[in-house]
Design a protein that fits this description.
Shape of chain B: elongated
Largest sheet of chain B: 6 strands, antiparallel
Number of helices of chain A: 4
Number of domains of chain A: 2
Helix content of chain A: 40-55%
Order of helices and strands of chain A: HHHHEEE
Low-confidence stretches of chain B: none
Low-confidence stretches of chain A: none
Strand order of the largest sheet of chain A: 1-3-2
Helix content of chain B: 25-40%
Oligomer: heterodimer
Distance between the termini of chain B: 67 Å
Number of strands of chain B: 13
Largest interface: A-B, 33 and 37 residues
């Protein structure tokens, strides 16, 4: 009689064990929702380069860089132009470095994932000075 | 004994009940997961199609004839290689052809640009000469020379921007240019290549059959392409008039935009290089 009682008890334990295993499998398999592929960084980088290329093709970029004015003035003017071109979901900073000078990173935030895009200019009209227009771009929170 | 049998049946009932409950939970999870995956994939696929389409129309160069469906491209490209260079006309002593001559105010000074010096074939009818204010200027072709007239006061320096296209369908727009006065040595600066949307391709796209184009491009989704000018007026609207290409008011619609420069013309004579933006819609 005791044996018969234990059988039912054992069967119930088996079921509970099976259910627990199923639960564990479900939790591990479905615990995180499917996420979009992480394309955002490459898309932002592509958009940033396209924006600078557009400014160059439309004849707006080089006159500002080679204007002879202080580079920080040109940087602000380029940023104004880019405001209307780039999506509002990103923030950006422009730095212009002449010849082999290192570009300043002081305006880029320290605690964010920064994407860097370089656009090189080798001359404009009478000037053959080399400039690098660097864009630091990051997603807004 | 009968009581014990009943107790055994209770075990089965309990086990089946728990099994059914677990099965229902599993089905519910799976359905939810698969539905979310389906939506995510659907958006991702449309986005991929839109990105590909936008990249190809702005970065790729293809040619076709709207009336010949066999010529429709497998990859739609509206870009052309344009070249831009600057010309300086400086009415100052150092630039006089006759260095011992005197400076005078110049009217209809002849500017000559040797087109063979470019080292590339281009469509002569695509020449666009712009003054410093962006106004189009008349020009002519004389042998190997592109010529136009300029007025310049003493010590005045003027810059001109000249655009040429490596291939296009513009018509002749040369006009007479005075060659009487040629006192100044103009300076022609090196060519710079730029990407521009070609007028000829915009024209062909506008007349292309949407259904055939979609098949040729191998697209699974419907699409719509618009080119806006700087004032947000629609310069190109492809393919308006086709039901399938009308942008739906509901559903997954992916829209991507990119700023471009494009050739503007009237009566197939190029009159400007304008700024605009492409927006590509993918849906369906």
């Amino acid at each position: 009689m005791k044996k018969g009682r234990r059988k039912g008890y054992l069967y119930t334990m088996e079921v509970l064990l099976t259910i627990s295993m199923i639960f564990i499998v479900i939790i591990f398999a479905f615990r995180s929702a499917p996420s979009k592929p992480a394309l955002e960084i490459s898309l932002i980088k592509g958009d940033a380069f396209s924006a600078l290329e557009y400014l160059d093709d439309s004849g707006q970029l080089r006159p500002l860089v080679y204007s002879g004015k202080p580079l920080d003035v040109a940087e602000l003017q380029i940023e104004d132009l880019l405001e209307d071109i780039l999506t509002k979901k990103v923030n950006f900073e422009i730095d212009i470095c002449k010849n082999s000078d290192a570009c300043s990173e002081e305006n880029a935030p320290e605690n964010r994932e920064i994407i860097v895009v370089d656009y090189y200019l080798s001359g404009y009209k009478k000037s053959y000075d080399f400039y690098r227009v660097r864009m630091y771009i990051w997603k807004m929170i | 004994m009968a009581g014990k049998k009943g107790a055994l049946q209770m075990d089965y009932i309990l086990a089946i009940g728990i099994f059914l409950l677990m099965f229902a939970i599993l089905v519910s999870f799976s359905t939810n997961y698969l539905q979310t995956m389906k939506n995510t994939l659907s958006v991702s696929l449309r986005r991929g199609t839109a990105t590909d389409l936008l990249d190809s129309i702005t970065c790729y160069d293809s040619s076709w004839n709207h009336s010949d469906v066999s010529s429709y491209p497998a990859r739609l490209g509206l870009k052309t290689d344009m070249y831009r260079f600057f010309v300086l006309v400086n009415n100052s002593q150092n630039y006089l052809k006759n260095q011992s001559g005197n400076l005078t105010d110049l009217t209809n000074e002849l500017v000559e640009i040797n087109k063979t010096a470019f080292g590339l074939d281009f469509d002569e009818n695509s020449i666009l000469v712009l003054d410093e204010d962006g106004n189009s200027m008349s020009y002519n072709i004389s042998g190997d020379m592109i010529i136009f007239n300029v007025d310049a006061s003493i010590d005045e320096a003027k810059w001109f921007t000249v655009y040429i296209d490596d291939d296009s369908n513009f018509t002749d727009q040369t006009s007479s240019v005075s060659t009487a006065l040629n006192n100044i040595t103009e300076v022609v600066y090196p060519l710079e290549r730029i990407d521009a949307i070609q007028y000829k391709k915009i024209y062909e796209l506008n007349l292309s059959n949407y259904t055939t184009m979609k098949q040729k491009l191998g697209l699974d989704y419907n699409f719509h392409i618009r080119l806006y000018d700087e004032s947000d007026n629609i310069f190109l609207d492809y393919a308006s008039g086709y039901n399938l290409s009308e942008i739906p008011e509901r559903g997954n619609v992916i829209a991507l935009q990119r700023y471009v420069v494009y050739q503007s013309a009237s009566a197939w004579q190029i009159d400007d290089i304008k700024k605009g933006k492409f927006i590509v819609y993918v849906f369906g």
